[in-house]
Amino acid sequence: MNTTATATAPTPAARLSVRVLGNLSVRRGTTTLDAAGLGGPKPRQILEILVLNLGSPVSKDQLVDTIWAGRPPAEGTATLESYVSVLRRHLQPGAGRSGPLRTTTGGYVLDRDAVDLDLDDFDAVLRAGEATADPDAAYGLVVEALRLGSVTLLADEVRPSWVQAARDLHAARVHSARVRAAELAVGTGRFAAAVGWARAAVEEDPLDERAWCLLIRSLELDGRPAEGLRAYERCRRVLEREVGCAPGPQLQATFVRLLQATADGADDFSQALAALLAIQEQLSRTSDVAPDTARPVAPAVRESLRAAGTVVDSFLRRALAST
C-alpha cells in the first residue's frame, strides 16, 4: 500500500493586495505586511520592481542591475535568488513557487491574476473618465481617480533613484488629470472647483500654460477678475524668469478676453483698463495700415500715445499688486 505522506503538498497561496500609492503595504489574507515585514530592503525592492511590472516577467540580470545600481556583488545572481526565497516566505508561506511570485525563464513575474494593485484602480477609473462622453460623469470619475492617486508613488522607498522614472510618470498622469478636472469643472459650471484644480496644477508645474489658461478663465467665470489678472502677471514673470519668453498666443488671448470683460465695469480699475485697451487699439491701427494709405500720424501724437500707454500700464501693475 502506498503510504507516501500528503502533508507536504504546497499550501494554496492567499491572494495579495498591494498598495504602492503612498507607503508600500501588502495584505495577505488577514495579515498586513509593511516594508519592514518583507525580509529587508533588497527583498522589498525586488517586490516593488515586480509590482511596477505586474504581469510582465523581469529578468534576473535587470533585477541585479537595478537593486545594486549597476554595481552588483561577485555572486549577484545567487544573492538575488536568495532574496527571492526570503520574499516568497513572506508573501506566500508554505506555497513555495506556486504563489503569486513565480519563476519564469531567466527571471521572475508577479501573477496579475493573483494580485490586486491600487495603481491599477487609479488607472482604471482615470481611463473610464477619459472614455465617457458625459461631462458630469467624466468629472466625477476624474475626481475619484485623483482621490485614489494624488500621492507619491512608493513614498517610503529609501533609495528612490531607481524608482524615480516611475514616480515621474505617475506624477505626470496626476498632473494631467488635475488639468482635465479643471477643464471639466469649467464645462459643467463648477467654477470654484475649477479654480482649485487649476491652481493645484500650476503649483505643480508653473510652466504649464494650459493650466494657467484654465486658472485665469475659471477665476473670470467665478467672478474674480482681479485675481485672474494677478494670475496672468505671475505667469508672465515665471515664464520670463524660467525660460526667458512671453506667454504664448492662447494665454495672451485669455488675458485679453479677461481685460475686455473687466473693462466693461464702472469702477476706476475698469475705466483704466478700458483706457489701456483704447490706447492699444489706436497704436495698432496706426501701425497696421499700409504706408501709402495711412493718414500721417504726427510723431508727437504717437509719442503721447506711447507715454499714455506706459502710464496706464504702470498703474495696472500697481493695482494688480495691491488688490
TrEMBL record:
| Domain OmpR/PhoB-type residue range list | 7-112
Q: Entry's PROSITE patterns?
A: OMPR_PHOB (PS51755)
A single Gene Ontology MF term assigned here is: DNA binding
Tell me the InterPro entries matching this sequence: AfsR-DnrI-RedD_regulator, BTAD, OmpR/PhoB-type_DNA-bd, Sig_transdc_resp-reg_C-effctor, TPR-like_helical_dom_sf, WH-like_DNA-bd_sf
Pfam families recorded: BTAD, Trans_reg_C
> Which sections of the sequence are annotated for DNA binding?
7-112
Any single biological process term in GO: regulation of DNA-templated transcription
Q: Does the keyword Transcription apply?
A: yes
UniProt keywords (A-Z) are: DNA-binding, Transcription, Transcription regulation
Q: Which family does the entry's similarity section mention?
A: Belongs to the AfsR/DnrI/RedD regulatory family.
Protein name, UniProt field: DNA-binding SARP family transcriptional activator
Taxonomy of the source species: Bacteria, Bacillati, Actinomycetota, Actinomycetes, Micrococcales
